[in-house]
Amino acid sequence: MTALSDAGGHVLVVNAGSSSVKLAVLDPVSGRRALTGLAERVGTQDASVRIDRDGERSTSTPDDVSHAGVIEALLALMTGDERSSITAVGHRVVHGGPTYSSSVVVDDVVRADLEALTPLAPLHLPGNLAGIDATTAALPDLPQVAVFDTAFHRTMPAYAAQYAVPRSWRDDLDVRRYGFHGTSHRYVSGAAAELLGRPPGELGLVTLHLGNGCSAAAVRGGRSVDTTMGFTPLEGLVMGSRSGDIDPGVIPYVAERLGVDAAEVVRRLNTESGLLGVSGTSNDMRTLLEAAAAGDEDAALAVELFCYRAAKHVAALSVALGRLDAVVFTGGIGENSAPVRAAVLARLSVLGVHLDAEANHANGATTGGRISTPGGPVALVVPTDEELLIARDTADLA
Ligand code: ADP
Hints:
With 398 residues, the protein is an alpha/beta fold. It folds into two domains: 10-148, Nucleotidyltransferase, domain 5, CATH 3.30.420.40; 197-386, Nucleotidyltransferase, domain 5. The chain has 17 helices and 14 strands. α12 (285-293) packs across α13 and α13 (297-318) crosses α15 (338-346). The structure holds adenosine-5'-diphosphate (ADP). Adenosine-5'-diphosphate (ADP) binds at residues 211-213, 240, 284-286, 289, 331-333, 336-337. Adenosine-5'-diphosphate binds at residues 211-213, 240, 284-286, 289, 331-333, 336-337. Pathway: Metabolic intermediate biosynthesis; acetyl-CoA biosynthesis; acetyl-CoA from acetate: step 1/2. ATP binds at residues 22, 209-213, 284-286, 332-336. Its cofactor is Mg(2+); Mn(2+). It is an enzyme of class 2 (transferase).
């Protein structure tokens, strides 16, 4: 137990994006949420904020629609007791660059480092930094901790972390495979070891985070040794609106044919591709499964392509492990969609993993648990909780 939890303190977890801020006030030991909050359309005149606690919602429309303004407005919706229960602030930060391999207390040096990393994540880091600045201004006496999406993957060996490109691109431009979703992969790999009743140091796992964004990681002995996302979150699996792996030769070809620049093609690979691009209708797995069941062939193809690519990457990552003990499903799709898990696992019988159809329908987001038959590697559902891991790291460092 941490000093913080002994004192009964709560951690404020902040996930500040470019146009939204999500927050939670929670106990870092039990994970119990005292409240959750959301600011939407940040930076626009329609910005609104809300706090949810015990089934009751309070809302307001701030005059100051900046990150600082909406965070002030969210804090103003909390009671005095709720505010004073907060003893530290943990921030989800998308990128820690080549150096940050674990969570860190934000001081002036860290703040400057993050600013310098902005070219590596220009869409996300400015929002993260605005969140850090806003909570530092509003709660100046509390420690602020940065928890990086990339940090868990800093243990990847060079042969997995590098692209086969000119060496100067790595040395001078920091072009390398960083990986993302590290907080989720780290959380579920630890929880999977607990479920299996085995020490993490003994296990070889492939963790599959399937949400709007999707990635898989090879976790050997509790450390990430490879992952599917790379320099940006575009690489790897098929996602809601991202293509995943693609031949870079497509980019200049499409740019020329459509009369747009390369950056615009990459934007479309991020926002108009994936499940949305293949189906032509939706980036939402639940919608596509319903459409496929009703006979929509494009929706069915999108789902099949998604599941095939996921299985292909699990098989590829298993070579990084030496031994495959378990495949772990998490994220909105991984936790909730029995049909997607069944389709991925059907293709993994080649690795000796066999679906237990009954358990697959019984074990989902609320329960988690084993969904494979005995013998061979295990398949598990493990609900992720990135906020809890951020709160725990924050409590440990504060
Ligand atoms: P994010 O990556 O934005 O956090 P989530 O992890 O919540 O997103 O995942 C969102 C995805 O989960 C959507 O594609 C949604 O359709 C899917 N999903 C949620 N519930 C179900 C369900 N019962 N069946 C199939 N897909 C589901």
